[in-house]
Design brief:
It contains eight helices and eleven strands. The chain is of the alpha/beta class and 225 residues long. The strands form three sheets. The protein has a five-stranded parallel β-sheet, sandwiched between helices. Helix 6 crosses helix 8 and helix 7 crosses helix 8. It starts with a strand and ends with a strand.
């Protein structure tokens, strides 16, 4: 079982279900959205890959992908376009936006599974860029460091894991219990107050980004832009 998470965006409900079923059989975690607008509502979660249809009502897949590529958090997320628009100009436009692959409809499920596997291998292999960058905030997943405007934030292991988790799920509010379960090891005995203490310490080291870590009274904490 792998840990890759995939978002499928297509206005064809039946096709989404077919892709979801087959991707989950391969061990992937899959979420679907039936429009770019719906997809933007769930982009608070972290995905290893997004599969996007081009021809959708409202915002097209090209426009949606362009918005993602302009966002500091999602700029390097792998994208596969899955579409009936397979003309040369369409394909070139897809790759100019930053697509990692372009699959024309109709297609075979085996082909899609193979393409997905290949893109994930290229994008999340040992030579991928370990940096997550957002307007002066840079997280190095290999070195486990956080830089703010070029200066080391000097976070502890727990502070680093806490920041990374909140950032990867930006916009979502987590209770202290949820943060304890996701960030702290199971064999460590800690109290809910431990979360509050670490959030306070983290904010003190985050400089101008401290205000991005919000307290939702009665609910918990979130990272919001």
């Amino acid at each position: 079982m792998n840990e890759y998470s995939i978002l499928v965006v297509d206005d064809d409900v039946d096709l989404c279900e077919i892709l979801k079923f087959n991707l989950e059989r391969q061990g992937y975690k899959v979420q679907v959205a039936h429009s770019a607008i719906d997809a933007m509502k769930v982009m608070t979660n972290f995905y290893n890959l997004i599969i996007i249809d081009v021809m959708m009502p409202g915002m097209s897949g090209f426009d949606f992908a362009q918005k993602l590529k302009e966002d500091g958090i999602w700029a390097k997320m792998p994208i596969i376009f899955l579409t009936a628009k397979d003309g040369e100009n369409d394909v070139l436009k897809g790759f100019e936006i930053g697509a990692d692959d372009y699959i024309a409809k109709p297609f075979s499920i085996k082909e899609v599974m193979a393409r997905v596997k290949a893109v994930l291998a290229r994008s999340h292999g040992p030579h991928t860029d370990p940096l997550l960058s957002l307007n002066g905030l840079v997280i190095d997943s290999r070195g486990k460091t956080v830089m703010i405007d070029g200066f080391d934030a000097e976070l502890t292991k727990t502070e680093y894991e806490l920041l990374l988790f909140l950032l990867q799920h930006r916009g979502r509010v987590f209770s202290r219990e949820e943060l304890l379960n996701h960030v702290w090891p199971n064999n460590v005995v800690v109290t809910l107050r431990t979360v509050d203490v670490n959030i306070t310490r983290l904010r003190k080291k985050m400089g101008r980004f401290a205000s991005y870590i919000l307290t939702k009274t009665g609910y918990g904490y979130s990272f919001e832009l």
